[in-house]
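Hey, I was hoping to borrow your eyes for a little while. I'm sending you its amino acid sequence along with the backbone structure tokens. Take your time with it, there's no hurry, and the full record follows here.
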Amino acid sequence: MKSAATLIATMATVASADHYAVLVAGSNTYGNYRHHADVAHAYHVALKGGIPADNIIVMMFDDVVNDDENPFPGQLFNQPTPAGTPGVDVYHGVKKDYTGKTVTAANFISIITGDKEKMKNIGTGRVLESTSEDRVFINFVDHGGVGLIAFPKQPYLYKKDLQSALLKMHNTSMYKELVFYLEACESGSMFQHFDMEGLNMYVTTAANGKESSWGTYCAPNDMVDGKTLNTCLGDLFSVNWMEDSDTHDTTKETLNVQYKRVKKLTNKSHVMQFGDVTDMGSEFVAEFIGNEDVNGTAVVAASFNADHNVGQFDSRDHELDRFYHAYSRSDTVEDAERLMMEIHSRVQHRTNVERIVSDITNGDNVKTKHLLHPETYYEPKLDQCQKKVDAAYDEYCGGYTDYSLKFVRVMVNLCETTNGDADRIVQAVAKACQ
């Protein structure tokens, strides 16, 4: 019988040979600092776990690290530290394949399905080259809405398109087993009623299909070495799974054990599981995103004793929160104007959506209130209608903001209750926003 040390050494050797990772931050602008910091941290978790840099593909807009608001140019931090204690720069050493305008839903699909031809002359051109013998880990971090996960520009990545891409990966033998960690609002909606039987796929999402995910290490815990970053440093679900990976021996921790720990810690949303939660769930985290050097230093050590019940915010409200705290700290006209503009934007988007729904219901107040109510949820099934309506909102209403993506749920409700009458809804969108 092999000793435990021999088994761990064998596992590490396998990990360096047949493991791949695709890590994506699908957002831009400084307000989404946390998404970039999450993915940069995930890169080091994967690298430390034995996945070679040549097997890790990174997609991030990469505008945050040198933004004028960043008090630490060229650096990103995924955890706060007290004054006198330097933070851990998770950005250092991250090799990026796709940045700026190359961060699109279409490119992401081409990357994970191994379409080299479509990615020729774009970024590094790298795509997944995994085989039926390999294990693949995908980590996507961004905003979302019912039936979609976002990118900086339309078109977004919709539920059926993501599911079709994952099925293509399976049907073309691109993996032996696949693990997908998805951080986004309403992220659970992307996998509802997806028949994953026999796909050898294990998925966890930051939230269920009708709630927001949450940022963490926000004000007043947005401090690194005594400096205020004025933004959330991480997302609650993402920080929890990565800090768990940093501080536990993942050669002995199963995916299901990590899920239970992360679910308990992520107390602002409902972390969900999909796919092969029985067999794959009993496999060790180190088989996918592990911690090969179990006696080494964690990527981000738990060095800051922050109250995890303070400094957490609904992702929809993050911009409002950070502008409020910026103004309360500075008392400047510029920060006051940013706060007022954010409030005005939120009111305008809500008004737009109320007008659209009222138009579709012919002014019926009861039906309008029902479709707008936060608890009214129709599962997204008519994706073509949803795509047309979202594109119309982009054209006529200036596009969704981080806040107004919450109203994608309402657009789905309209598609479902009108049996997919996209033209009628598009007309209402154009009328409301002119």
User: Anything to note?
Assistant: The longest strand covers residues 19-25. The domain at 4-289 is CATH 3.40.50.1460 (Rossmann fold).
